[in-house]
Amino acid sequence: MKKIVFFSVVCLSFITFFNSCSDDDDKSEYGGTNEVFLSTVSTTTLNDEEGAELQIKVLLTNRVKEATSLTFGINKNLINGIEIVKLSEPTIQIKAGEREGRITIKSNGKNLLTNVMSTEITLISSSLKNLTLNKPLSILIFPKIGMPELTEHQRVLLEGYRNDGYDISKWIGLIPVRVKIAFPGEGSIDAFTLPYVKEFNGQTMITLNESSTPTEPILNMISNAMGIESYLYDIFRQATILDEDFWTRQPAPQISMNLVGLDASKPEIFKLALNNLKLNLKDNTIDFISIRKNIYDEDISIVGFDYSYSAWDRLLALIQAGNQNAIEADEQGGSLNPAKYLNQSSTIDKDEYKGNNWIKPQSRFNLSTGEMSFIFNMDHLNAGDYIKFEVTYYPAK
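Above: the chain sequence. Below: its structure as tokens.
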């Protein structure tokens, strides 16, 4: 197994401890201050478009002895006096004997954003005396995803496929996707210690690759590839700017952060694309695995995502301009290139971790149902095993 492990003192935080316990099994009570902790169920980003939403988990330190109402609000939520997002039900009830609830943040669908906006979910009031919020939850709101206009060549190809009985236009545009993620845990920093399974819905902008031929359709996922753009951004941030125990304490990362003004509290733009998905019309499979160089300059098989990250763009510009501090920081562990942290070490065509999460990459499409599915793995910095992804696309309505 090839992977980089940074040695640091791994101490589970209080919130991580509570997330690892079930309501049924945890019968003990913490004796200190009762607090509210907020975390997202899937990701920490949301698009400024109709129908976009995400769920937020509300977790109290202790179970409440009587029914308790909590009212939440959103800070930094206005553009020209107009609210960009809202809470579907700002006030929730925690039943007696319980300590967990959910709130949902939704886009107002105003499509007003031209840049990334950072908002905060905060606790406004509680019917339980002395109940406090541990800290506000930051949510990044991204501008609406735009579909590029199809060229005449693309329109002719789509019509030709349709005439031949292969209507792939159902996968062109903003396409619904369902994602299931199995995270193995056992990583070498706090954020990657505990295993979990997440399921969520999303949308991917897909278009026809200009290199397509009349007999070989090729798709490009130009944003939110595989529905996991926000998820991978979270993993990337946990391995870098949010790793306060190790990464942010090292000289090279500190130089990079100072050079480009990178701060965990400031919004950056992260985009995930995946191009050259070849649809094999004979067997209904999809070629989606690429050969790329890993951090050891070895060829490995991976899902060949293309990453775009605004902080890396700024550092790369300095590197290309010959800034010696930027060059050395990038080479000595302070790179801001997502490709050096995601899919960065091990191949996925065989199990190099020898754990329980590897599965052979698979793909399938069904023209009758309009479903397109993928199963694959990827690793990341400080990983304990592969992350397993199951992704299913459905025809746009």
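The longest strand covers residues 196-208.
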